[in-house]
């Protein structure tokens, strides 16, 4: 991952927050690494080395700055723009795959041997999978230390450490402070809530962010029982590797406030990664808007909806099955059909706002025909997809390559190009999928006089182009 020194140094000199998370500044004279926007005095060029990841800085012996908290920066948009082995591995590491199954599980998910995987990641990112996972564990531990009253021993194992000693040594090495001291310092800060039974987090993003787009998308697609939208807050249930959770999210200037209630604290990191993915919080909106607004036909739409995001997902199987249920029917009808399925087959949870988890693929494969209504061919397609997911013939996770996911989806009966493109875009946060088969997108293109057959000029941001065209068409409908 090549980092241009002069470009990086200019970003650091100007304290440009747009580059936070895209690279890290390691200062030889202090032994500390920072985010580019750190308010500290800009170091001399001769004392600086730039790192592609926090793990690379830690692996080289640098400690995290306690002033700018570089591990809390938004994630790099590179992991969505790129589809190579390093990018796909980083998505899975963020989801906690190494903590759950080791480097072997990561290698199996991306189709590489552990030796080859380690070699590629070290060359590309400056650290191997174990070092990258260690940085991920340290970040999770810091969140738990600062936002919960959990005993340190419980935090150590919830964050994925193998022992208390490993936990203590890592926190000291990464943050130059003991876990106990870190908690004491956080409790003196009035803006850091410490909550019993829940975790309250600030999920940062790069401004701007068009919150009204998410307000429409999340509220219009909400399925009773699994999701709710009320007074600017989106709440939903989550099925996670070790249990379930509920999450409430509110978009605020500069960050999303997330309140998480987890049945197993080991699921904190996967929950955070999936919420960030759902809201596309690691995007680089300045780069997207600049590229799209260069076309005069799009300039007005981009200026009105600066920072529009591409909604992701929290579960690949749920995404596919909900998309198939909603094919060729209205949003209201899709919500009704899906809510009926959730009520019949979803696992109950003890919560007031959302009461069930989305049904598993196994449950839909066995009992879907009892609950689903509509044309027999449509029901057969949905149940067939559930059977493929339940058997493992179809594997939908964020570490796969886009062309492989699309090919696997198209091989299933009842799935056409629109469904395959839509699911692939949201599953992988792929920024460059044009929904050219979507009726609403085509209507938006007609309004602006855009020929979708000539879309190469908007690479690699065609997913965001789809969102803009979608919104243009929806706004036109409202105005009538």
Description of the molecule:
The chain has 480 residues and is α+β, with helices and mostly antiparallel strands. Helix content is 51%, strand content 10%. It has 22 helices and nine strands. The chain has helices at 5-13, 54-59, 78-81, 85-94, 97-110, 114-125, 129-147, 152-158, 164-175, 179-187, 211-221, 268-279, 285-293, 296-304, 316-325, 331-345, 361-371, 376-391, 402-410, 417-428, 439-448, 462-479, and strands spanning 24-27, 32-34, 48-51, 63-64, 199-204, 227-230, 233-240, 243-252, 255-262. The strands form two sheets. The protein has a five-stranded antiparallel beta sheet. It has a four-stranded mixed beta sheet with strand order 3-1-2-4. Helix 4 packs antiparallel against helix 5 (97-110), helix 8 packs across helix 9 (164-175) and helix 19 (402-410) packs antiparallel against helix 20. 51% of the residues are buried.
Q: Any idea what the shape is?
A: globular
Annotation field: number of helices: 22
* Sheet with the most strands: spatial strand order: 5-9-8-7-6
What characterizes the major β-sheet?
5 strands, antiparallel
Could you tell me the strand content as a percent range?
5-15%
Radius of gyration: 22 Å
Alpha-beta classification: alpha+beta
Chart the SSEs and their pairings:
Elements: H1 5-13, E1 24-27, E2 32-34, E3 48-51, H2 54-59, E4 63-64, H3 78-81, H4 85-94, H5 97-110, H6 114-125, H7 129-147, H8 152-158, H9 164-175, H10 179-187, E5 199-204, H11 211-221, E6 227-230, E7 233-240, E8 243-252, E9 255-262, H12 268-279, H13 285-293, H14 296-304, H15 316-325, H16 331-345, H17 361-371, H18 376-391, H19 402-410, H20 417-428, H21 439-448, H22 462-479
Parallel strand pairs: 2-4
Antiparallel strand pairs: 1-2, 1-3, 5-9, 6-7, 7-8, 8-9
Helix pairs in contact: 4-5, 4-7, 5-7, 7-9, 7-10, 8-9, 15-18, 15-20, 16-17, 17-18, 19-20, 21-22
């Amino acid at each position: 991952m090549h980092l241009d020194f002069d470009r990086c140094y200019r970003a650091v000199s100007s304290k440009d927050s747009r580059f936070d998370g895209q690279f890290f500044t390691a200062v030889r004279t202090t032994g500390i690494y920072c985010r580019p926007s750190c308010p500290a005095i800009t170091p001399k060029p001769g004392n600086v080395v730039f790192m592609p990841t926090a793990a690379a800085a830690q692996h080289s012996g640098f400690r995290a700055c306690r002033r700018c908290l570089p591990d809390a920066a938004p994630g790099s948009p590179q992991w969505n723009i790129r589809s190579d082995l390093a990018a796909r591995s980083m998505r899975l590491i963020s989801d906690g795959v190494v903590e759950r199954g080791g480097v072997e599980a990561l290698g199996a998910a991306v189709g590489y041997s552990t030796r080859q995987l380690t070699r590629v990641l070290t060359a590309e990112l400056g650290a191997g999978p174990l070092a990258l996972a260690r940085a991920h564990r340290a970040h999770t531990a810091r969140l738990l230390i600062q936002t919960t009253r959990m005993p340190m021993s419980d935090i150590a194992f919830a964050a994925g450490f193998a022992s208390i000693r490993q936990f203590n040594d890592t926190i000291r090495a990464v943050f130059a402070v003991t876990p106990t001291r870190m908690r004491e310092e956080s409790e003196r800060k009035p803006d850091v809530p410490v909550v019993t039974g829940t975790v309250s987090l600030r999920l940062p993003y790069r401004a701007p962010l068009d919150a009204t787009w998410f307000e429409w998308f999340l509220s219009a697609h909400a399925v009773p029982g699994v999701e709710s939208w009320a007074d600017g807050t989106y709440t939903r249930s989550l099925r996670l590797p070790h249990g379930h959770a509920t999450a409430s999210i509110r978009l605020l200037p500069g960050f999303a406030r997330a309140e998480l209630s987890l049945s197993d604290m080991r699921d904190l990191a996967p929950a955070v990664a999936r919420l960030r993915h759902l809201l596309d919080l690691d995007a680089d909106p300045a780069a997207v808007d600049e590229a799209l607004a260069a076309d005069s036909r799009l300039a007005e739409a981009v200026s009105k909806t600066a920072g529009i995001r591409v909604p992701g997902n929290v579960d690949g199987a749920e995404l596919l099955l909900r998309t198939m249920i909603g094919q060729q029917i209205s949003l209201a009808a899709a919500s009704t059909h899906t809510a009926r399925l959730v009520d019949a087959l979803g696992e109950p949870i003890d919560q007031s706002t959302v009461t069930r988890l989305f049904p598993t693929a196994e449950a839909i494969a066995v009992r879907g025909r009892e609950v689903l209504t509509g044309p027999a061919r449509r029901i057969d397609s949905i149940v067939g997809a559930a059977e493929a997911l339940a058997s493992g013939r179809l594997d939908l996770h964020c570490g796969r390559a886009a062309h492989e996911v699309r090919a696997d989806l198209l091989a299933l009966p009842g799935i056409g190009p629109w469904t395959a493109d839509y699911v692939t875009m949201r599953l992988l946060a792929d920024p460059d999928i044009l929904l050219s088969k979507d009726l609403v997108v085509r209507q938006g293109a007609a309004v602006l006089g855009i020929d979708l057959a000539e879309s190469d000029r908007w690479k690699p941001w065609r997913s965001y182009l789809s969102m803009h065209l979608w919104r243009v068409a929806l706004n036109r409908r409202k105005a009538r």
